[in-house]
Amino acid sequence: xxxxxxxxxxxxxxxxxxxxxxxxxxxxxxxxxxxxxxxxxxxxxxxxxxxxxxxxxxxxxxxxxxxxxxxxxxxxxxxxxxxxxxxxxxxxxxxxxxxxxxxxxxxxxxxxxxxxxxxxxxxxxxxxxxxxxxxxxxxxxxxxxxxxxxxxxxxxxxxxxxxxxxxxxxxxxxxxxxxxxxxxxxxxxx
Length: 190
Known about the structure:
Elements: E1 15-16, E2 20-23, H1 30-37, H2 52-69, E3 73-78, E4 84-91, E5 104-109, H3 118-133, E6 138-144, H4 148-156, E7 160-166, E8 178-185
Antiparallel strand pairs: 1-2, 2-3, 3-4, 4-5, 6-8, 7-8
Helix pairs in contact: 1-2
């Protein structure tokens, strides 16, 4: 499916970029996903690394949401090799955030695949799906203030900073609690 193709809600959305395939999760994705969720470099701006059971539960939730509504945090694989490298997609946060309700674009890639433009490439296509297929009016993204790499991806997507907030799921006093919010509206997207 092309990111701006008509969508049949009975079918999960799957699509490709020049180097990536964004698709439903597979059982085979769980082991490499657990490895990236256990990597302190990948999880630097999260409260902790995830155990195997925690990462499996996250993958199961992502797959279930895609099966239910057709979209979500898609598994990302390299087209050239079929290698799973993480996830990129859209999500409706369950936390009651100051700007809820919203749909966020997010990503988590294995460290070996950082610095190659893959997050930006995939997130650009995901945003197009959000606006042109799902007909969203706005997409947000947020990260710990010090997460410069993710903020740079948000800026490359054309998102604009929209202040900071304290993430309610993180404890008072946590150095990870202060987040920056980025927004992109449909009318500002090409």
